[in-house]
Amino acid sequence: MAVENWVAFYFDGNQAWGFINSPQDWLDKIIIPYERESSTDMLLRACRGPNNRKNAPFFGFVVECKGISLGQWAKENGMNLPLTSSKT
Fold this sequence. Notes:
By secondary structure, the protein is α+β, with helices and mostly antiparallel strands. The chain has one domain. Helices cover 25% and strands 15% of the residues. A 4-stranded mixed beta sheet has the order 2-1-4-3, covered by helices on one side.
């Protein structure tokens, strides 16, 4: 099985947040909570903030987040960020 490229980052959304250190973190900490409460469609539109969180890129929806989108950054880093889980 091939190992997926992964770059850790911090995500701060309205319903879920935290350090995302692996594809499983993305599913457990972000996707599953958003699937339960609303929609995951907008998650990849979160933008990079001006400051890192403990040396990890920071992405969110707050006004100071005006950089590259999470979706574009993930693509540039060869990361796959699915918007659904198998638990729904």
